[in-house]
Amino acid sequence: MVRKRPVVLWVVGLAGSLLLAGAVLAYPTLRTAALRTGKLLEWLGKKPDLTWKLAAGSVCGGAPFEMPTSGYIGYLWDDSLRLFTRHQGLDIFGGTPPSITPVYAAYGGYLTRRPDWKSSVIIRIPSDPLHPGRQIWTYYTHMADPQGSSFIDAAFPPGTSEVYVATGTRLGYQGDYSGDPNNPVGVHLHFSIVRDDGKGGFLNELQINNTLDPSPYLGMVLNGEHDNGQVPHCQEAKK
């Protein structure tokens, strides 16, 4: 037993070193997300700066997608909201109670709502407007209250499959459903772009490598290098 102690200590030391290294690597995006949280709380305050708000249906800089809902974009793709996590899309906060701020299709395609989905829909886009010929999927979630009462439009009941919706079709309303009634996430829309699995389906949205940065599709200034928590804004149209 005495001989094994150095090995055990080495393993513990290695694990600690790996955790520390991971924290250091993640620190810049954690810091950025913390700054964004400060901006978000400021915007959700009593006197929000309405110039930070983007309107549903607006188009930034001639981008292919319309804004899917109105509100302030609090968190961006690839933010680290917690250690060792990477955000897979955009969180757009309407600043209203649940079921008030509408959510619309950012781009036309074929909508599916799986039978067990209380707050989510996904839309298949056969040809990516930025990369023609590549199929992508747009995912919309948190459209329910903490108990799972859905705010998705009645036109898309559970089990809906491959129903065509045009750009601007109302899909539902922002909510704060997280799957755990004791852990509400704040009223917002989580919007992401999911990669195709090559077999006509979509990959797991919970893994960032299965998603694409929505910024260029919405005409926002690219956020891949992060922007020290600055307010997300539209990219100017090319003259």
Core attributes:
239 residues; alpha+beta; Glucose Permease (Domain IIA); 8-stranded antiparallel sheet; 2 helices; 18% strand
Short description:
The chain is 18% helix and 18% strand. It is an alpha+beta fold. 38% of the residues are buried.
Structure explained in plain terms:
The protein is of the alpha+beta class and 239 residues long. It has one domain (5-218): Distorted Sandwich (Glucose Permease (Domain IIA)). Helices cover 18% and strands 18% of the residues. It contains 2 helices and 10 strands. It has helices at 5-43, 215-218; strands at residues 72-75, 90-93, 102-104, 109-112, 121-125, 136-141, 163-165, 170-173, 189-195, 211-212. Strands 1, 2, 4, 5, 6, 7, 9 and 10 form an 8-stranded antiparallel beta sheet that branches. A two-stranded antiparallel sheet has the order 3-8. Strand 4 (109-112) and strand 5 form a beta hairpin. The protein is globular, with a radius of gyration of 20 Å.
Mind sketching the topology for me?
Blueprint: H1 5-43, E1 72-75, E2 90-93, E3 102-104, E4 109-112, E5 121-125, E6 136-141, E7 163-165, E8 170-173, E9 189-195, E10 211-212, H2 215-218
Antiparallel strand pairs: 1-2, 2-9, 3-8, 4-5, 4-7, 5-6, 6-9, 9-10
